Amino acid sequence: MIISKHQISSTKADMKIATYNLNGVNARLPVLLRWLEMTIPDVVCLQEMKAPDEKFPEQAIANAGYHAIWHGQKSWNGVAILARNEKPEEVRRELPGEPEDDQSRYLEAKVNGILIGCLYLPNGNPAPGPKFDYKLRWFTRFIAHAADLLSSDTPVVLAGDYNVIPTELDAYKPERWVEDALFRPEIRSAFQSLLAQGWTDAIRNVYPNEIIYTFFDYFRNAFGRNAGLRIDHFLLSPHLDSRLVAAGVDRTARGWEKTSDHAPVWIELADE
Fold first, then answer.
1. What gap in Å lies between CA 201 and CA 183, rounded to an integer?
2. Backbone angles phi, psi at 62, to 5 degrees
3. Where do the domains of the chain lie?
4. Strand, coil or helix: 94
């Protein structure tokens, strides 16, 4: 059964995986705990935690029933993977290819036989400029690592805030984003190169032609007007295509008080 993206799902599949850019794990902790209690995902990828490792709310998340690993950083970065019933088995916490890169944007772990890659791809604005150059380098490293993951013959989910608007369908008034680092031709081309390796865009697989947004700015009543972007994505390795049974966006959580400017995105996978 395909569940509407407009509602919070309460249906339990064999494995429900979610991704959520929190815009501050401690500032949004009540929102996160409320959402976890309502939706009960099995695995959650978190981004933009804005907290160093020692400030991660491990006990509160454990009290909610989740084991966690995290790669924190003060300021704008930080990623984490939460799992019910078992502790994620950490595989790596950085992308290969640039040893001096100290930004906490990638975390990889095995959960229930699936390799989960949690990512927070750089924003890249203003473009052109040094931040955009870093985004392109990071994306190039990510594409190379993704190819290695595909060759490993392991079921893989790459989930997170990609800061990529893949097509015009994924933006409200796309003409306004032409020069933005989220929508520039180089970035869209890189995303298509990633898909061409053999990855499946889970949301587009389930909803090929629908307007679906995952991010809504805090300004100009963007959420109320449904003036958003689709920048939070799930990419699935070929092992998981046939197991994808549902996907969606928890828009309700975006409407709560003191919430993130992103909405949680989720998929459901059937057992093998």
1. 17
2. -65, -40
3. 15-269
4. coil
* Nearest C-alpha neighbor of 167 from the set 119, 120, 229, 226: 229
Name the helix (H) or strand (E) containing 159.
strand 156-161
Q: Helical H runs in 117-184? A: 130-151
d(CA 18, CA 7): 14
- Cα torsion 8, 10, 11, 13 to 10°: value is 90
Select which of 42, 161, 180, 250 is catalytic. 161
Coil vs helix vs strand at 38: helix
d(CA 235, CA 156): 8
- The CATH code of the domain at 15-269 is 3.60.10.10
Report the percent of the chain where pLDDT is more than 90. Answer: 92
Full-model pTM: 0.95
Question: Which letter does DSSP use for residue 54 in this model?
Answer: G
CA distance 49 to 74: 8
Catalytic residue list contains 218: no
Mind listing the pLDDT tens digit for each residue in 186-212? 999 999 999 999 999 999 999 999 999
Q: Of the listed 120, 180, 201, 232, which one is catalytic?
A: 120
In the residue annotation, 120 being an active-site residue is answered as: yes
User: What are the tokens at 112?
Assistant: 């229930």
Low-confidence ranges of the chain (pLDDT < 50): 1-12
Task: Look at residue 70 and give its three-state secondary structure.
Answer: strand
The whole-number pLDDT of residue 13 equals 54
Distance CA 186, CA 139 (A): 10
Cis peptide before 96 (omega within 30 of 0): no
Quickly tell me which residue has 């704008």 as its tokens.
76
